[in-house]
């Protein structure tokens, strides 16, 4: 497995579940890339876009796990048809609304629904009390792409602040290859 983890606004350093997941996959001799995208606290779409395209082309992952703003970035890359090849599996975790209106991340919005997401298998994972997306919008996105939706009860934005450091469920999903 070649796993690419893409963090959201502010990064996903320890004790965030993405940092934990990177170490767990590496322990089992998986190949992991978990880049810190430039200026995570003040993201700009074009800068993030160029950087992630570079990682996709150089690392060539088969599995990509996006958290938060990285989901929006993936949608922009897919909409522009810039993703160089379809990945085997794509996990969209804690996706924010496609119409988010926050000044610091305004270059990412509004975000179009791309025709395709450049992945053979896709899972959308949200929480029923995420402050950045409603379950109804997540259901619409999942229905649009005919992909499975997992709604976690009371998980907030599915980050360290909401108790998601060690997250055995996501590790099991990552390891559960076809």
Automatic annotation (TrEMBL):
It comes from the Bacteria. One of its GO terms (molecular function) is hydrolase activity. This is Serine hydrolase family protein. It comes from Nitratifractor salsuginis (strain DSM 16511 / JCM 12458 / E9I37-1). The lineage of its organism: Bacteria, Pseudomonadati, Campylobacterota, Epsilonproteobacteria, Campylobacterales.
């Amino acid at each position: 497995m070649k796993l690419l983890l893409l963090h959201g606004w502010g990064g996903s350093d320890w004790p965030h579940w993405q940092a934990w997941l990177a170490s767990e996959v590496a322990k089992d001799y998986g190949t992991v890339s978990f880049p810190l995208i430039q200026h995570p606290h003040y993201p700009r779409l074009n800068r993030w876009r160029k950087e992630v395209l570079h990682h996709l082309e150089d690392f060539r992952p088969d599995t990509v796990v996006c958290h938060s703003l990285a989901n929006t970035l993936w949608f922009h890359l897919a909409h522009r048809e810039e993703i160089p090849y379809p990945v085997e599996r794509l996990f969209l975790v804690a996706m924010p609304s496609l119409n988010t209106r926050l000044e610091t991340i305004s270059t990412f919005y509004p975000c179009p629904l791309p025709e395709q997401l450049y992945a053979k298998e896709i899972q959308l994972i949200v929480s029923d009390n995420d402050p950045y997306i409603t379950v109804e919008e997540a259901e619409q996105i999942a229905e649009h792409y005919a992909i499975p939706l997992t709604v976690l009860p009371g998980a907030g934005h599915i980050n360290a602040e909401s108790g998601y450091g060690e997250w055995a469920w996501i590790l099991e999903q990552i390891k559960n290859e076809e």
